[in-house]
Design a protein that fits this description.
426 residues; mainly beta; eight-stranded antiparallel beta sheet; 35 strands; disordered N terminus
């Protein structure tokens, strides 16, 4: 259970997370399709609100599976439009396709959102959809891929036979963790989704299409333009997040301050329970954050505690920082973002001499890929060493042989756009 009182500006809440099963269906109780439909009660009765059975795409139940046999220009669908009122959904089901007459992009679309109808309409973010993905049919019978529709990206892998598809959607303002198909606990940031096929996560932390549309309904629809085929579904399980225990989090005093060529971060806590660590996240644009390091938490602590971290290699210009606080049980939350302009030039370097190894070590930040010339001079201007360098954009470490003079020396780094100098002691 999380009970971390971080002193930041924003007052918020952290939640312990559990999941409750709200819908399950394995099509084993009857071979009559209508026995799995309850237009009024839907998921409450462990049934769909509609399952289509049209002339060119009739549905049937056989061998404990729901099957659609598409033979012409006709859509098919199964829907559950009784409001579930969820903020987090984990939906899994088995899927297979066979006998497709051709390849088909987004042949089957899975939607979650609000205000759906019992029809084959595939909803977008502007028409009630929260999140969606698709199944593409391959040209080879029995094979398929999955697709992130909004970002027009297909899965790396192609699948065949019966596969379990798991769709995890977090429509909360805080991150969550969940038990993945592999049995490991995975993190999912606010307003994002993951998609698994079997034990393979094909899409990770994809932004929901419209978080204003609640996770009330779901629908699977095969488009009328999809190739003729036989599609089978089974073992539907839907879980939502159980009512969480909300604990207070008072957020204040997360600070970022430029200090020479570094950036100092400071924060403190009033009390901690089960606090494993703080992950330090940094971004160049305030949108895409990457972990640069972590600081251990105090576990359980009832006293005020101060933390500090120094970013030794900040980016040129404005750096954006935030903290990801992680519990031992995998639950986490984020601080507010703190922005600071560093004192780092577009390109920069640091020099550290090592007499025993006969080298000087450079830590170089290059604004772009390219060549550079490194030189060492004494205070009289006499050149003691010179070496050409091939630099990659970003930070890199380079060792340059040097057994020259002692005392205070001057190093210079010349790129196509600038020359930088730094004094160091050998």
């Amino acid at each position: 259970m999380k009970k971390l009182l971080l002193l930041f500006l924003l007052i918020g809440g952290l939640a312990t997370v559990g999941y409750g099963q709200i819908f399950t269906q394995n099509f084993s109780s009857s071979t009559v399709v209508s026995d799995y439909v309850d237009a009024t009660n839907g998921y409450v009765a462990n049934k769909f609100t509609a399952i289509s059975s049209l002339t060119n795409s009739p549905s049937s139940v056989s061998g404990g599976r729901l099957t659609f046999s598409k033979t012409g220009n006709s859509a098919s669908y199964l829907s559950q439009i009784k409001d579930m009122g969820a903020t987090v959904l984990i939906v899994s089901f088995d899927f297979s396709v066979s006998g497709q007459s051709a390849a088909g992009t987004s042949a089957v679309v899975f939607n979650v959102g609000s205000a759906f109808g019992n029809n084959s309409t595939a909803y977008t973010g502007s028409t009630g959809g929260n999140s969606r993905f698709a199944i593409n049919f391959a040209a080879t019978s029995g094979e398929f891929t999955v697709r992130d529709i909004v970002n027009t990206t297909n899965s790396t892998n192609t699948y065949s036979g019966n596969q379990t598809i798991t769709f995890v959607v977090n429509n909360k303002a805080v991150g969550i963790s969940y038990d993945s198909p592999t049995g490991n606990k995975e993190s999912l940031p606010a307003y994002t989704w993951d998609l698994w096929v079997g034990n393979t996560r094909e899409f990770n932390d994809v932004a929901v299409e419209n978080s204003n549309n609640a996770l009330n309904n779901f629908k699977i629809s095969a488009q009328s333009s999809a190739p003729n085929c036989t599609m089978s579904f089974d073992n539907f399980v839907i879980k939502d997040q159980m009512e969480p225990t909300v604990l207070p989090v008072a957020l204040n005093a997360f600070k970022a301050k430029a200090n020479l060529q570094q950036v100092d971060l400071t924060w403190n806590t009033a009390a901690e329970t089960n606090n494993a660590r703080f992950e330090i996240l940094r971004s160049a644009d305030g949108k895409t954050f990457n972990k640069i390091d972590e600081v251990s938490g105090a576990g359980t602590n009832t006293e005020n505690r101060s933390y500090a971290y120094t970013d030794q290699n900040p980016l040129p210009g404005v750096n954006y920082y935030k903290l990801k606080q992680v519990d031992f049980d995998g639950q986490y939350s984020f601080s507010e973002v703190e922005a600071v302009k560093s004192n780092v030039a577009a390109s920069n370097f640091k020099v550290a001499a090592n007499k025993q190894n006969g080298t000087v070590k450079l830590t170089v930040y290059a604004a772009n890929n390219g060549k550079a010339t490194f030189k060492i001079y004494d205070l009289n201007g006499r050149k003691l060493a010179e070496q050409e360098l091939n630099l990659s954009k970003g930070y890199s470490n380079v060792s340059v042989p040097f057994n020259g003079g002692n005392g205070l020396l001057i190093a210079s780094l010349t790129t196509p756009t600038e020359t930088l100098t730094q004094k160091f002691i050998q």
